[in-house]
């Protein structure tokens, strides 16, 4: 064999390789590191096909060697795999392995050789138990994480649903009330038309229903009542028997509360924020001065 | 000099052997020249795979690559791990001597350069060919994402993608890989069951390696339940790596180059290129500035007729 390649030792080869690369330096592509290769094949690359085949014949095992010695299986890939698509690539490898194993197992089965490890066969494994424990721990942790996330999601969903249901219910209730009022009105009209005598009691009753608003709690705030006042402004009106206590006391009681929890007493509302009476205007000027 | 002479000796030896073996190739065994008489009387029944792989690495190897090497050691029961070899001074001859000393027939040599590039040599020892790969995309078996596990020393099933048959160099690599990675049958440290599979696949002119555990739902020792093979699943054990072939040499760790990857760029080159690009940034800026200035000088702005319109 007379290969075009030079006689090169281990070290020489590298030097050679380096300056061969040097000449090619401009044509390098700038992909990410692991996929970089020359755009076009370099011309002076050696390819000694005869030498390769000769070498191959030199080292191959005799052809009649049984398959069990070799245990190798060729699998045809149906289509080209895109290297940069990790998922597709791994899937291709997986299917190759799976297909190969299937074929191999069929062969082994037809030869009558045992190939599956019996469940009571214990032997040293490639990965230690300690390591497998770690792997298991990681898997469990991952699972837990997922479950927790799932739970949180579910809770959120439930909350949303409950809100919706509550709104629905309120609507329903309002509707019902309206209907009832309507019914009563109708009934009253009918009664009037029928000419029933109106007793005093009845008129009183009717008055209560007059415009149907008796059932609704008025949303309007009573004017003088501060938002946190638990007495609903009644403390301000004052009981007649407490004549001794002055107006001041009553006012303070209504404003600051008298007994009871603090609850919502200290919250701002639109009214309180717009109320600037409590501020001393002079002090604002002072602030300005201080700023300067 | 002495080393060199030794080297050339092995060179001379190789073709002679080839001449002997070429005409009656089917009768050859792996160690044909050693026990020729035995082989001649027996056919495939007498075939005995006596493969021994020496695994070693260069000094100053990265921990990651060292772990990869150790993984390979645990995957191949028919290997002998040797001490680290000095990378600079290691030339073919010393390594060959070492392999011979350990009475191995092939070698996996992990060579780490600059603490970051890993080269893998696969060599058949006495008359070999040897293949040099650049290794990238390394994932070791220690990674927790790879959840499989299998018996230590069970023989792997080797699967190759069909494109290994495409060209002579791929064929040669396939043969070398089968001989190195296949555990010899009835090897004393091997276990009699098959529970993992190696994948060698050529994608994008790189050889990708994967190792999967085979799990089959079965009840008895080797009776697979009906359709059990269909329910077979694989779990990845690792390690993973991707081999980029660089060169194939005729001898072991040297000799005439039989193949050269025409697309290969060394990682040094890539890094240099990156650096140059980065370095070019400032120079480019300066250049752009001067160019702008030149441009402005060469075509001055026309005097604006409305310039003093509001200056009354």
Automatic annotation (TrEMBL), chain A:
Q: Where is the composition biased (Acidic residues)?
A: 10-33
- The annotated region (Disordered) lies at 1-38, 169-292
**Keyword Nucleus annotated:** yes
On the tree of life, the source organism's domain of life is Eukaryota
Cellular component per GO?
A: nuclear periphery; nucleolus; preribosome, large subunit precursor
- Record field: compositional bias (Basic and acidic residues): 169-185, 199-218
Compositionally skewed regions (Polar residues) per UniProt = 267-284
The organism named in the record is Rubroshorea leprosula
Q: Which Pfam families match?
A: Ebp2
Phylogenetic classification of the source organism:
Eukaryota, Viridiplantae, Streptophyta, Embryophyta, Tracheophyta
Question: GO biological process: what's one of them?
Answer: rRNA processing
InterPro entries named among the record's database cross-references: Ebp2 (IPR008610)
Recorded family membership:
Belongs to the EBP2 family.
Keyword annotations of the record: Coiled coil, Nucleus, Ribosome biogenesis
Protein name (record):
rRNA-processing protein EBP2 homolog
Cellular compartment(s): Nucleus, Nucleolus
Automatic annotation (TrEMBL), chain B:
Q: Give the source species.
A: Rubroshorea leprosula
**What is the designated name of this protein?**
Brix domain-containing protein
Q: Which UniProt keywords are present, listed alphabetically?
A: Nucleus, Ribosome biogenesis
Q: What is the lineage of its organism?
A: Eukaryota, Viridiplantae, Streptophyta, Embryophyta, Tracheophyta
- The answer to whether UniProt assigns keyword Phosphoprotein to this entry is no
Q: Which PANTHER family match?
A: RIBOSOME BIOGENESIS PROTEIN BRIX, RIBOSOME BIOGENESIS PROTEIN BRX1 HOMOLOG
Location of this chain's protein in the cell = Nucleus, Nucleolus
Report the sequence similarity comment from the record: Belongs to the BRX1 family.
A single GO BP term for this record reads: rRNA processing
The Gene Ontology CC terms held by the record are: nucleolus
Ranges of biased composition (kind: Acidic residues):
302-312
Q: Where is the composition biased (Basic and acidic residues)?
A: 15-45
Which residue windows are coiled coil? Answer: none
Chief location? nucleus
Question: Which Pfam families does this one have?
Answer: Brix
Matching PROSITE patterns: BRIX
Range of residues in the leader sequence:
none
Q: Which GO terms describe its molecular function?
A: rRNA binding
Q: Where is the Brix domain?
A: 51-254
Q: What are the boundaries of the region Disordered?
A: 1-45, 290-312
